Amino acid sequence: MNYQTIFDTLASEMADVEDRGHVATYIEALSHVPPDRFGACLIDHQEAEYHLGDSNESFSIQSIAKVLSLTLAYRTAGESLWRRVGVEPSGNPFNSLVQLEYDGGIPRNPFINAGALVICDYLITEMPGVLDVILDLARRLSGNEQLVYSQEIAESERVSGFRNAALVNLMKAFGNIHNDVEAVLDFYFKLCSIKMTCRDLARTFLYLMNNGLQPGLNERIVTKSQSKRINAVMQTCGFYDEAGEFTFRVGLPGKSGVGGGILAVHPQHYGIAVWSPRLNAKGNSYKGMLFLEAFTTRTGLSVF
Amino acid sequence: MNYQTIFDTLASEMADVEDRGHVATYIEALSHVPPDRFGACLIDHQEAEYHLGDSNESFSIQSIAKVLSLTLAYRTAGESLWRRVGVEPSGNPFNSLVQLEYDGGIPRNPFINAGALVICDYLITEMPGVLDVILDLARRLSGNEQLVYSQEIAESERVSGFRNAALVNLMKAFGNIHNDVEAVLDFYFKLCSIKMTCRDLARTFLYLMNNGLQPGLNERIVTKSQSKRINAVMQTCGFYDEAGEFTFRVGLPGKSGVGGGILAVHPQHYGIAVWSPRLNAKGNSYKGMLFLEAFTTRTGLSVF
Amino acid sequence: MNYQTIFDTLASEMADVEDRGHVATYIEALSHVPPDRFGACLIDHQEAEYHLGDSNESFSIQSIAKVLSLTLAYRTAGESLWRRVGVEPSGNPFNSLVQLEYDGGIPRNPFINAGALVICDYLITEMPGVLDVILDLARRLSGNEQLVYSQEIAESERVSGFRNAALVNLMKAFGNIHNDVEAVLDFYFKLCSIKMTCRDLARTFLYLMNNGLQPGLNERIVTKSQSKRINAVMQTCGFYDEAGEFTFRVGLPGKSGVGGGILAVHPQHYGIAVWSPRLNAKGNSYKGMLFLEAFTTRTGLSVF
Amino acid sequence: MNYQTIFDTLASEMADVEDRGHVATYIEALSHVPPDRFGACLIDHQEAEYHLGDSNESFSIQSIAKVLSLTLAYRTAGESLWRRVGVEPSGNPFNSLVQLEYDGGIPRNPFINAGALVICDYLITEMPGVLDVILDLARRLSGNEQLVYSQEIAESERVSGFRNAALVNLMKAFGNIHNDVEAVLDFYFKLCSIKMTCRDLARTFLYLMNNGLQPGLNERIVTKSQSKRINAVMQTCGFYDEAGEFTFRVGLPGKSGVGGGILAVHPQHYGIAVWSPRLNAKGNSYKGMLFLEAFTTRTGLSVF
User: Fold this and answer.
1) Structural domain boundaries enclosing A75
2) How close is the nearest chain C Cα to the Cα of B214, in Å?
3) ipTM score of the complex?
4) Assigned domain for A303 exists
5) pLDDT in tens, C124-139
6) What is the pLDDT of residues B1-48, one digit of tens each?
7) How many structural domains is chain C composed of?
8) What is the CATH number of the domain that holds C121?
9) Please, what is the end-to-end C-alpha distance for chain D in angstroms?
10) A235 to chain B: which residues are within 8 Å by CB?
11) Within a domain: residue A304?
12) Active site residues of B
């Protein structure tokens, strides 16, 4: 499969598509991103890299970082992790409190905000200096030693993060948060503010394409079963209220962020990241979803 | 891969597992099924068949029939079908009215009861004698000319079907049901009462393993894209409130029924059906799910 | 207190008020009512009558009839009635299914549609020819022997009554409806189609002003305790999602209907009925509520 | 009406009633209250006092203090207050987040926790040193110069107050909280920790029996219209999820607290306070409600 040819063909096609999305504005610092950026990077099972557009420009990965925190928590806790968070799609907007109250403080899955906050709480308890631990892991997986989070964006998230504060307090009322509310929020906002390029993203999560073993590093990140299961959770829960739509149109497990990035994985074949800041009404990259749909249509391959 | 050896090994292992499930009783006629039956049948991409236990005994396929009605509607309507029903997981019990009211009468997906009822309504409008049409299709796909529905079970469902009647009436209030309420319910209950064996099931849905082309018949049932998309909807929505759990544990697109049957598909590899009447708390076959989890673990293969 | 003077003063004031309401259109036959009609009638504890405008023109009393059916059921069943329906405000739009599902098929109160349907079901079981029984009661209470229901409106309600059909079916699924769905709906739609004038209404419900004893007839309709409790339920539940607002602004127990009528009672003092067909966004008479607010403000008296 | 005779008769009757309630334990400091205390005090329109049992022992008035904060806010803001909080019953448990999210951050009424927190936020903005202001008002109204709040209980509430913190954060996300989250919570917990005796309570709220004018002080606390409207809101919203039940059984506007106190008002007749610490399942005093029901039954008078 000549991925580069497909990339180039799609690049010219996508250029003609009107971008109907809108840059996220509820986090003030995010709203400054140049809205017309577009980048993509694919790394295949032999570590060959394919690039398109702004693939080496870093951006705020936002919720894609939840795959990293889930990975770290899952390999530490094993299956006991699922006592505190479920694996079911939420069927509701991404930060709704309704479901959480109905389910007694147990978030539906680790990718909605509530679930990611519980994962953060778990990690704070388990590992001192957890922010450094997760940044070190991200640097090792991506091979990018300069990888950092944006203090400016983290602070901007805090200023508008009252809904997340409500989630943590509600879960603490239910006994599913063990640390101080502020400590959990602080780590969560910094985690979401990690900056990566498309290339960083595609490389970081290659272990999910490769049964848990990171190519290049030749290091086991998670077990084969865990790798499969993280992909499964991405498939059913990775796109907020649009998980079914992404599965339906793209057919790959993936995870999006409100910074406009999308990570997707075709197990045994490749990892791919795309970035386009304007979001559709459900909070996922408008052109990013179109690009990935066109890409799997063109290759004729998906997990289905 | 020697599927038969795996079947035989799992058979002896499963025999030792306590069945914590319970036979469905809300449909009176279903409660008479012998609870200890267990059967499985796998048909691979070369049409080789593998059997286990009661694989040739027919049972009520119940909601698995919704894959058949979706197939028929999708290939008739094309993508316009999705104006009347969504592709998102429901995140709620399988016959909840809450979500439907919130979403203005548009069911979340074609596999919850509300969605299947809309599909039935569409088919009644489009094809006269729709029950014969769908039975003919099932006979041709399965190669079983004797295939019928159970009049006794259909009537038993009607007697306890007030919740489904509520769903149809509510959707008619929203304008998403075009035919008489009773006509829609009548067709729906008969559809759910179709009886098949594990072998019938595995063979009927082989086109979903084969990009839409039915092996043996060499007939195109749906397009490649439609086949992929039906699998995608099964992956995210095929198990009521347990779709995430099935994806997480088994890793294949599939569909279950309260008769105790489960159909699953590994695209390009095989179709598989399993039957064990006792259900877990979420309404899916208790041993059926265990068996499929053990099977994909043993083969080491899933879509992820 | 010179009620007639207040009536006349308010009449000229109300004439200058822009009517921002809209005639109900979801029941086709209701939409033909002349929208500018306005009538009021007050009958005090000495049976003196005060009239204003179109007080002797009959209209569809709609949900106000639920006070009549509740009265008949309550005096028959006594306190056991409350096993099948509650006395709490609904806090939700008047025909929502959500609350009903949450509460296991027990409607919150007898004035939301679900609760009134349960009352109808109870009456059908208890008294053969219930429609004649309730019409006879209405004729005796009002002293209007010509009182009838409108067959045209009843049929028009049936045509658009799928949401009510959904409610009855859902409650039947929960076991809280004992008769045939169609029989319950048929009685309910006829009950809501009873026609009365403002004078009929004010007189019919005088027993609620008089501790359960109907003046003129000198007949006990309900016990003193029951009379007080029906008033209490009207106070907290009589105005759909606007019960608090009516209590806040008017300060009397009352009941409205989508035909534009409102009945209110000042215990020991008077019964009052007002009619103005245009409804506010919550489904209550726009000018009717304004008039009653101005009336209790002018008299300086309310239950509070 | 000889209130003392009724008090004495009911005292001996209530002594034989098994108390099926349970002392509130979610606030640790509240759980130490002697569970068998029982007191009542009635003050009539001529300021005559009637006492029963532990009527001069102080207890934590908890949510009854919300009538005081509403009074202070209402007379300051006038009708503009209702832009930030509604007057409709909640139809849901007393601290549910669901309704709040549905209604865009506007609490249903000033007596559910969310609404009382908004009132606190308003008061903090409007008056420096608001805690002293409200304590001064309580002392003047009750005539008890020693009246204080319990620092121990306020701190105990903070420790278990994560659900209230969730409410404030959620409302701040919607823009309906203007001050710091901690400042609002701090004032709210101290307000709820005010201690009064039954006599203090009955006297403090006499203005609600007297069209807004405080007897004895001869001071206007609120306008006649405001007094009526506060009573109206108590009638429909004063008892959490049991407002309809209290209205149905007792027939007076009132307000309860989880400390076991209940305040009720019969306009133009009397104010009454009762205290019995064991609560029913809905969080209202078990014997307190029984006592008030028996009392209004015996007097034969209520607002209905």
Assistant:
1) 3-298
2) 40
3) 0.94
4) no
5) 999 999 999 999 999 9
6) 699 999 999 999 988 899 999 998 888 888 889 999 999 999 999 999
7) 1
8) 3.40.710.10
9) 18
10) 235-236, 247, 304
11) no
12) 63, 66, 188, 240, 258
